[in-house]
Amino acid sequence: MGGTRVRLRVVPGARTSGLAGRHGDAWKLRVAAPAERGAANEAVLRLLATLLDVRERDVRLVSGHGARDKIVEVAGLSPAEIDARLAEPDRKDE
After folding, report:
1. pLDDT tens figures, 3-53
2. Which long-range contacts (CB under 8 A, 24 or more apart) does 45-49 make?
3. Of 44, 27, 40, nearest to 88 (Cα)?
4. Which site in 20, 29, 52, 77 is 20 to 30 Å from 93, CA atoms measured?
5. Contact, 56 vs 45, CB < 8 A?
């Protein structure tokens, strides 16, 4: 696929899903889905695609399938574009 890799810190089983801001050099995402049978991973990919305004098929989990720290690859966007889209004030739900 090829694309830009993004570090994420994921909190599964949250009350609501959304972007929680930065977590060191990663972006922190909360997802309502539980960390069972890949449900949280699927929710992360859907949420990130929505936040970045890309197709779900353009977002792929590269590592961290069973961990809170994950790396995803996003096709079609540069690192600067990803940071700009995620840093928009109306995207955060803190």
Report:
1. 899 999 999 999 999 999 998 999 999 999 999 999 999 999 999 999 999
2. 45/72, 47/17, 47/18, 47/19, 48/6, 48/8, 48/72, 48/74
3. 27
4. 77
5. yes
For 48-76, give the DSSP string.
HHHHHT--GGGEEEEE-TTSSEEEEEETT
CA-to-CA distance for 27 and 69, rounded, in angstroms? 10
Residue with tokens 């994950």: 70
| CA 86 – CA 9 distance, rounded (Å) | 14
**Cα 53 to Cα 90: distance, rounded to the nearest angstrom:** 14
What's the CATH code of the domain at 62? 3.30.1200.10
Number of domains in the chain: 1
Place of tokens 């305004």: 53
Residue 90, amino acid = D
Query: Residue 17 CB: number of other CB atoms within 10 A?
Result: 19
